[in-house]
Amino acid sequence: MSRPAERTEDTVATPPAVDDGAPRPVQRTIAVCVDDFGLNQGVNAAALQLAEMRRVSALSAMTQAPEWEEGAARARHLDARHIDVGLHFNLTLSFNGAPALGSVRTLVTAAHLRLLPKRRIREALLDQLDAFEEEMFRAPAHLDSHEHVHHLPQIRDIVLDVLARRYTGSLPWVRASAAPTSSLMDSMQRPEDRKAWLIDRLVGAEDFRRQARALGFFVNTRLLGAYDFKATESGYGSLLRHWLRRAKDGDLLMCHPGIPRMGDVIRHGRGVEFMVWADPGFPQLLRTLGIGIAPMSGIGAKTSQRAP
């Protein structure tokens, strides 16, 4: 497997070799999703290369973003048996003259006070779903959101209602940003666990998951991949091994790889992630840990078949 086509000054030293160990049969299957698809050409190029390498199993698209149409023209030809393409619902970034609803902090406060403009949120969701279908010629395989806002009170009601009405009989799966640690004490041991726990509690991930499942949506078990985007390649490689070791069946690991571009506030983190995910030794790490990567839509279908 070839190395990524481009290295930049934003990336650092080559990560250490992957864990030694004899290959084991697949014991756990997870999905891996690249967020922010369509944001810029660097994100698109990295996401598509990793999808073709089968290092990831989902792309989440920002359909208002500048490079969405260019990315969709290639993403629509990816094999849907191996990759889910869904909507990364956005309310907090402004694109192409479409104003943001507000910062995530503003939305969290307004949501818990029940003061969000519900009509504007519904219209934004419908517009973004329309834009997805116009370019992909199909419904999104899943829905999540930028900065996890789809979990918030009022927003989650609108999201689940729109999806249930629009895709009756073939519901997309939805992301729950449920932390891998359930208690504050457990989450205090590592900075990335604290961030995951705070995201879970601030946006109401468990309430969203309970409501979504009651309506018949398939939801991932837990969300892995939260950190501060400041790691070196070796540091991110260590985080990735940590997440994979603790992964359970049906977990979702989010990532943000990209070929760094000026103006992207997390370009350093994107470059680091791309190098680690594209490393030639990554498949051996999966075999050693007994981890399989598959689309969450496929994981959900198998789970439904096993259900009584």
TrEMBL record:
Keywords: Carbohydrate metabolism, Hydrolase, Magnesium, Metal-binding. Residues 1-10 have a biased composition (Basic and acidic residues). GO terms for molecular function: deacetylase activity; hydrolase activity; metal ion binding. Its cofactor is Mg(2+). The keyword Electron transport does not apply. Residues 1-23 are annotated as: Disordered. GO terms for biological process: carbohydrate metabolic process. Pfam families: YdjC. The keyword Hydrolase applies. This is ChbG/HpnK family deacetylase. It comes from Variovorax gossypii.
